[in-house]
Design goal:
2 copies of one chain form a homodimer. Chain A is α/β, with parallel strands linked by helices and 259 residues long. In chain A, 31% of the residues lie in helices and 27% in strands. In chain A, the strands form 3 sheets. In chain A, strands 10-9-8-13-11-14-12 form a 7-stranded parallel sheet, sandwiched between helices. A 5-stranded mixed sheet of chain A has the order 3-5-6-7-4. A two-stranded antiparallel ribbon of chain A has the order 1-2. In chain A, strand 6 and strand 7 form a beta hairpin. In chain A, helix 2 packs parallel to helix 7. Chain A is elongated. The two termini of chain A are 37 Å apart. Chains A and B meet through helix 2, helix 5 and helix 7 of A and helix 2, helix 5 and helix 7 of B.
């Protein structure tokens, strides 16, 4: 499904609304030559010819314009003008009980497109151990998927990723370092408050949103999260698939923070 | 990916949190015998044995409990006790420019899981005509997918579906019949209001949410919608894939109506 290469990725389900360049692309005298999926997109989808411009961005940097100076035979050379400021990191982080590899594969791009500052993946009672042994957690697999999501959503800020095999150690020893200042929410059917109500007084603050495994957090996990400052929020009476729930919860959180 | 049968469907990505029965299941003296994907789920996933109960629902009817009276060889007989009221129809309807068949295939279950009263599919300038000629728009294809979404989300109310090949005829001649009373919103990047603000005074009313094609509505389409009472709302600066956008917009709409 994915046509991926070392530095870029085009997924048939996604649009490239921004061509992202990173440190692996040698930008020389403001020019860069691409020959991977990004070049294919510029040539075959945008059908850009010399003189035309495409929207570009520098990974974790600013936006700009790329003017096509050469386009042929699978290669595109762009003259880059980067200007403007680096966009702010999205205000929302997620702490996610690792879903099945097949679901996680789909989620990487989706999370980056929706906008998250960091993705903290954790074990939980209802997470199967072998989920941690798949290549979907290798940086060389997930990085192009995150970049795909950023190119879709026109963002340059790559989410930080950390992977934790021990839930308790994560929450007790590492969480304050990863997320020191902001509001902590955990989504659970038992939550009595909505995300919107929980955030009604906290516009533009950082939020860490914990999303459990398909079977939910167990009592110990919920107590430990509560003891570490997480407020329980509900999504409503409907049981959603983990990937649908992630999108729904992140969308509501972003909407609550900006409204 | 889908193990489907005439009357039921189990998708590997979804949970069956409710076993839905419909008029095609012959319920005799309160007993029903299943031998399709629902039976497989009860036997292989729930591992139910005689005496155990499973959550059941009657399509477009009430919830209840099914007690296993026989379970063997791919067949399950349930004694059904249906009680309680039929849940209300979800308050949100969608008017969706028909996406690519591959995306639409994924969307059916997702829309039913998120909760929509009706799905109005339409043509638009940026919808390719051949999208209308796929089996994904045949009732025998989409009905099991809608039921899959209902079984995931524990709902019994099957969304009504209508398919319109002419946008203008739909909006001018049919829309008032399909959606007579309620708030009409159209999602577009040019919208200045958020969904939450647009709905802040309208809790528990019916909402019709129009979601455009990947390239957006054109000016004529936006004007026609505006002339027929649609208020423009924005989702924010990020460009999302149509299926992600549908989930995000529906989640925010539901959250805004209930908060």
């Amino acid at each position: 499904m994915n046509i991926s290469s070392a530095a870029g990725v085009v997924c048939q389900n996604s649009d490239v609304n921004l061509v992202l360049l990173d440190e692996r692309d040698r930008i020389d005298a403001n020019c860069v030559t691409l020959s991977d999926a990004r070049a294919a997109h510029i040539l075959d989808v945008l059908r850009a010819t010399p003189g035309q411009t495409v929207r570009i961005g520098l990974l974790d940097g600013s936006f700009g314009t790329g003017t096509v100076v050469f386009a042929d035979d699978g290669r595109v050379t762009l003259r880059c003008e980067l200007s403007g400021e680096t966009p702010p990191r999205p205000h929302v982080d997620v702490l996610l009980a690792l879903p099945r590899p097949k679901v996680m594969r789909r989620l990487w791009a989706q999370l980056a497109a929706l906008g998250v500052g960091q993705i903290i993946l954790t074990n939980a009672e209802k997470v199967e151990r072998h989920y941690f042994d798949t290549h979907i957690l290798d940086e060389e697999t997930y990085r192009p998927l995150l970049i795909e999501g950023l190119q879709q959503a026109r963002d340059t800020r790559l989410p930080a990723v950390s992977i934790h095999r021990q839930f308790r150690v994560l929450v007790e020893d590492h969480l304050d370092g990863l997320f020191s200042d902001g509001i902590r929410l955990v989504a659970d059917p038992s939550g009595a408050t909505s995300i919107t109500s929980a955030l009604s007084d906290y516009h533009n603050q950082r939020v860490l949103l914990a999303i459990g495994p398909e079977g939910g957090w167990n009592d110990f996990e919920l107590s430990l999260l509560a003891a570490h400052g997480f407020q329980m929020v509900a999504l409503g009476p409907r049981t959603l698939r983990v990937d649908t729930a992630c999108t729904a919860l992140l969308a509501i959180t972003h909407a609550s923070l900006t409204d």
